Structures are given as structure tokens and as C-alpha cells.
Write a sequence for this structure.
């Protein structure tokens, strides 16, 4: 048995947290031989609810769960953390515009960035799930300048998983038959699920699936999936978001298979025309705990327009929070 790693989760008593913790403790992220110590972070009013979650975790008697610690602030909660899931964020309230949400969440991620820098382990890797996740991750990273670039990322894997699932269903295939489906840009309705480079059972998706459906139905289906779930369930997605967060960190931990790509929102240095210095979702490969942005992907004019639109949105978001960028 390996030595346990420390895994911190913010917003641990929330809906996504509730779907995430039990899968982490069961070994779904780091594998059946990797014990973990959970470090659960909440805001003070949610600590009682968090106690209840801890009781349930204990009652599962998970063999891989070697400890549970709780904290009501990130400086304590991130102590020695090797892996961090930043799920907690202020939800959008009625009448709130995206810019208001960004500003409301900004200070939370300033504090969390500082806490990562001062308290987390040297090998820390973090994913931001709480929305608007790309810009929250940017604020966090800019307030942790001593942490190597690229260690703080944002999640676009749920958009990727949704795109994979839609194409698999349409093609009469399994999700595992779909490869190289990646999402570019912002985790928002402007994101671009790039079906041009994806394959299903080794065949180009553009020839395996009706092109009209791809152009007219697929992108809106993926982009509006969150709203469709709220409409059907009466609550926003939680288990699928938790599952995607596990996929993001698990792929970062274990690596991508030969020839496989995945989507991660990471610091941009202007690749593929993305604005420099935003957290942009790219096609990446992962090996040895390090991601590499895939080089040399050719984009059509249609795709370039989509990349430009989502990049513009991220540049605008960065402008809204420029005072928080350290
Ligand atoms: P959830 O657990 O449902 O969601 C948490 C965050 O994840 C939200 O920002 C949400 O964004 C985001 N998210 C990203 N992808 C998805 C997706 N596909 N579906 C749904 N949400 C997604 O929220 P709860 O309110 O249940 O729980 C949040 C917890 O965080 C609470 O327990 C609260 O106490 C805590 N919290 C912690 C803070 C901190 O650490 N300082 C600050 C504020 C809250 P969106 O709203 O856009 O859906």
C-alpha cells in the first residue's frame, strides 16, 4: 500500500461535494492502491452540515480513507494538500449578471490562491470547478505566484464528457468509442466542442454522424445541457460535475493514453490565437503529472471564429477582475 496523499475539497458540504467525496474515498480517482486523507473545507455556516457528511464518510468504512480533517478556512484546509478540488463558490442569485458573479467570487479565489502558496504541498495540483471557473482559476493562480505555472487549472471536462456522450448516442456507439473530442475556451455557452478532430470507432465523427445534426443540433445540445438538467431535475447538475472533476484530476494523475487528448483550461501563452494570460481550455496530453498543449491542430474558419469568440469572452472577464490579479 502506498503512503496516503492529502486531497482538499472546498464547498465540501454542497451538492457537488456530496457527489464527489464518496467516489474519491472509494478510490475512483487515484486508484485502488492509493489511500487518501480528505481535507474538507467549508464556510463557517456550513460546518455543521459538513459534520454530517463526515459521519456518513466514516460510516462507509472505506479502506482507502486514512483520515478526514475539516477546516472553515483555506489556509488550514490546504495544509500539505497534494491535490485540491475548488468546488465552493457563491452561486448566481436572481438577477445577477455574469460580471456580478465574477466580482462576487473574486475575493474567495484571492484568499484560496494565497492559501495554496503558503500551505499546500510542493507537488500541489488544483482544479477549479466553482463558476466562473476559468476566471476564478486565473485569480487563484495570480495570487499564488510561487506555485509553478500550470498547477492551478479549471474544469472543462464536463463539457467534453457531454459532447462525447451526445456523439456516441447519435452514432450508436459507446462513450469509450469516441476519441479526441475536446472543448476549447471558456466553460460557458461560448465554449467550442470541437467535433472536427474527433473520431468514433476510429472514423472521423464528421463522416460517421450526419453533418447537419453536428452543425445545427450538437453544439446547442452540449452548450445548453446544464439548463436542460435544471429544467428536468429542478436542480443543477451535481453528480456529473463531480464525475468530470474526478476525470480531470484522474487523467492528470494517471496520464492520457497514447494518442488520446483531453480538455483542460490552463494558462494561455497565445496558442491557437487565444488571448495570452487567460485560463483557456485546450486539447492536451498528460504524462508524469504534466500536461502538454497539443501542437499543430488545423482549425477551419468556422472553428477559428468560435475560438476567437470564447477567447474574447475570457479577455473581457479578465478585465472585470484585473484589480484582483495580484
Ligand atoms: P454546488 O456544489 O452545486 O456547486 C458548486 C459550484 O460548482 C458552483 O459555483 C457551480 O456553478 C459550480 N459548477 C460547475 N460546474 C457545474 C455543473 N455542471 N453543475 C452545477 N454546478 C457546477 O453548489 P452548492 O451551493 O450546493 O454548494 C456550494 C458549497 O460551497 C456550499 O456548501 C457553500 O457553503 C460552499 N461555499 C464555499 C465558499 C468558500 O469556499 N469560500 C464560498 C461560497 C460557498 P453554478 O452556480 O454556475 O452552477
Amino acid at each position: 500500500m502506498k503512503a496516503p496523499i492529502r486531497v482538499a475539497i472546498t464547498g465540501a458540504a454542497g451538492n457537488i461535494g456530496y457527489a464527489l467525496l464518496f467516489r474519491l474515498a472509494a478510490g475512483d480517482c487515484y486508484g485502488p492502491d492509493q489511500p487518501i486523507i480528505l481535507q474538507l473545507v467549508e464556510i463557517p455556516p456550513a460546518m455543521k452540515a459538513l459534520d454530517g457528511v463526515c459521519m456518513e464518510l466514516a460510516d462507509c468504512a472505506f479502506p482507502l480513507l486514512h483520515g478526514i480533517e475539516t477546516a472553515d478556512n483555506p489556509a488550514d484546509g490546504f495544509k500539505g494538500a497534494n491535490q485540491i478540488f475548488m468546488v465552493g463558490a457563491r452561486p448566481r442569485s436572481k438577477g445577477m449578471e455574469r460580471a456580478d458573479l465574477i466580482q462576487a467570487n473574486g475575493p474567495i479565489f484571492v484568499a484560496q490562491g494565497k492559501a495554496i502558496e503558503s500551505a499546500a504541498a510542493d507537488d500541489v495540483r488544483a482544479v477549479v470547478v466553482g463558476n466562473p471557473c476559468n476566471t476564478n482559476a486565473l485569480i487563484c493562480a495570480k495570487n499564488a505566484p510561487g506555485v509553478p505555472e500550470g498547477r492551478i487549472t479549471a474544469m472543462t471536462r464536463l463539457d467534453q464528457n457531454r459532447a462525447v456522450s451526445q456523439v456516441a448516442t447519435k452514432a450508436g456507439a459507446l462513450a469509450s468509442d469516441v476519441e479526441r473530442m475536446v472543448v476549447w475556451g471558456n466553460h460557458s455557452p461560448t465554449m467550442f466542442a470541437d467535433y472536427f478532430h474527433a473520431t468514433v470507432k476510429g472514423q472521423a465523427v464528421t463522416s460517421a454522424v450526419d453533418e447537419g445534426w453536428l452543425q445545427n443540433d450538437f453544439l446547442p445540445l452540449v452548450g445548453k445541457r446544464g439548463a436542460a438538467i435544471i429544467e428536468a431535475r429542478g436542480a443543477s447538475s451535481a453528480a456529473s460535475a463531480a464525475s468530470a472533476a474526478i476525470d480531470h484530476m484522474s487523467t492528470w494523475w494517471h496520464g492520457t493514453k497514447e494518442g488520446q487528448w483531453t480538455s483542460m483550461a490552463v494558462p494561455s501563452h497565445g496558442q491557437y490565437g487565444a488571448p495570452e494570460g487567460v485560463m483557456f481550455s485546450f486539447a492536451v496530453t498528460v504524462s508524469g503529472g504534466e500536461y502538454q498543449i497539443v501542437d499543430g491542430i488545423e482549425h477551419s474558419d468556422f472553428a477559428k471564429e468560435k475560438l476567437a469568440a470564447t477567447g474574447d469572452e475570457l479577455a473581457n472577464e479578465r478585465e472585470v477582475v484585473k484589480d484582483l490579479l495580484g
Remarks:
- The longest helix spans residues 98-119.
- DSSP finds eleven helices and 14 strands in the chain.
- The chain has two domains: 5-154, 157-320.
